[in-house]
Amino acid sequence: MEALILSCSTGGGHNAAAYAAAEAMTARGHNVKVLDPYTLIGERVAKAVGGTYVRMVQISPKAFGVVYKLGDAYRRLPIKSPVYRINGSLAKRLDRYFRENKTDVVLCTHVFTAEMLTYMRNHGYATPKVIFVATDYTCVPFTEETGCDYYIIPSVDLRDEYIRRGVPEEKLIPCGIPVREAFRDGPGRDEARRSLGLDMDSEYIILSGGSIGAGKLRTAIRVLEPLLEPDDKRLIVLCGNNSGLYGSFEEKFGGSDRITVLKSTQDMPTYVRACDIFIGKPGGLSSTETAAARIPTVFISPIPGCETYNCRFFTGRGMSLAVKDIRRELIPAVRKLESAQAVERMKRQQQKYISGRSAEELAMFCEKITAK
Fold this sequence. Notes:
By secondary structure, this protein is α/β, with parallel strands linked by helices. It has two domains: 2-179 and 357-370, Glycogen Phosphorylase B (Rossmann fold, 3-Layer(aba) Sandwich); 181-353, Rossmann fold (3-Layer(aba) Sandwich). It contains 17 helices and twelve strands. The protein has a six-stranded parallel β-sheet, with helices on both faces. It has a six-stranded parallel β-sheet with strand order 9-8-7-10-11-12, sandwiched between helices. Helix 2 (43-59) packs across helix 3 and helix 5 (91-100) crosses helix 6.
């Protein structure tokens, strides 16, 4: 099978899902290419598209929330959105790609890329089978104006929401968000710690700002610092691609034996499996990854929009805790997860709702529909 996975860098989750799907398909002997379609125009355009989102979220998450609400309001109108028409401008370039590269199936891990394929179909271009892969626990704006063959959704519990938005029920495949196998079946805690050179006897908390280093990490560190010394806890702060944040934290904590500051890391599954508690914003992928690894999780600082729904989905099913006021609520949440019973309950709920095998199930589904 020849597969193309279209993603874009508006947050790391879309790319993470793309590479997780590619990993599973490659393991089953298929040829897979992951492509940011905006690079067909030019690398500068691709960086500008992703960079605009990243800067908005880092500087003003509330502004992104306003944009999300506008998109949500637009879906009430009986016409295609400007997003559809803008993304349709790539139709000719994608048509050329398909003419030059045999492609049996296209996976779209971002709604923008699904819009591109929909525009092509609506304007007479031939396309392979098209699958939209949702990366958040809600039906995001503009999904309903896409015309894909199938929609991979995170949970059967979201089926009614997608149907209500106009996606045909027979196109919904609730096999979950694809995550890398290493989150589910990676090294055990002790092995993970040995490979990372971490202390075997300390309790490790990961504080993550996601791929873009967003969220109220400074506030969270100030709140957590008093916990570290007396309780032999250690904090690993993940700044993602936010070099300014990393530089600031490294300058302040570079000499600390209790706080480790990291940039974006390729060892994320190992760090997750090595830690005792994960604290971060509720990105669709990071939430799924920590649940697949069965790691107790606390959500802080959701970006308004998709992450609000992600937070609601996970906390409503007992797969995580969430705090609104970091200064008052974060320490009690961490203390709650010191209870073995509370941790076991959370892990049971994670196991109930997140199998961690979605990437493999997606690969098998692609095999099934391309064999016809």
